[in-house]
Design goal:
The chain is α/β, with parallel strands linked by helices and 273 residues long. It has helices at residues 3-16, 19-24, 46-54, 69-75, 83-88, 94-111, 130-136, 149-157, 171-191, 201-206, 208-218, 265-272, and strands spanning 35-39, 59-61, 118-121, 141-146, 196-200.
Amino acid sequence: YDTARLGRLIDKEIAAWSPERLAVFARSSITDDRPVFVVGMPRSGSTLCEQILSSHPAVFPGGELEFMREPYENLLVPHGESIATAHEAGAITDKSLTRAARGYLQKIRKISDKNAVRVTDKMPYNWRNLGLISLMFPNARVIHTVRNPLDTCLSCYFHDFIGVHPFAYDLAHLGAYHRHTGRVIEHWKAVLDIPIHTLVYEDLLADQERVTRELVEFMDLEWDDACLRFHENRRAAITHSNEQVREKLFTSSRGRHENYEGHIRILRTALEG
């Protein structure tokens, strides 16, 4: 996995999506606030987050949707994957963004319950699409799932993703990926005008009800006790965390990296940069 290339990509993303440029970019006319994008490292609690939210009757769990791929490929790829170049070429207009947003909404309409007030999309690679998402859906919500970086990376390392996440098979690559993607997500939090809520896994373990209530409030939904009983929710959760979210919260994975202190120096170094 080429972590140096990833670092350069992140640098370009941060420079391209500056506050000055965001101020002049067009926005779509879509006011729909159903889409909720859950982003974060694999194994950082995104599946748990979606399981909690989908325990609420107003939330439909979309899972890891690939629906943002088409807008990205249509609007940015023809212009070197650069928002600045696409903007200068006249490709980023209110009409093109509205058309892209309608296409996304049409797709989630086909898979979700008709009465769903919120639909979650937890494709982890959407960390790169948050800028475009903010232009397509001015009323969208974003949840960033965070967990101890060492625990997160080790949990990835101990799982076989069957090649889906190519950075997950080397501790140095994992640390660099975590650091670089974290940089761009913090940039999004600073410059985007859509709300981004940070869900900290360890905080959820320490005070489940408070953190869950904050999450439901962020979704602008009425409280429902079922969100505390997420383990009873039988909606699909097709990830490596599938079995875990069918159980109550457990703390055995918290601080797991402490069992491997003699073997993770390279991971610590990569995380620190």
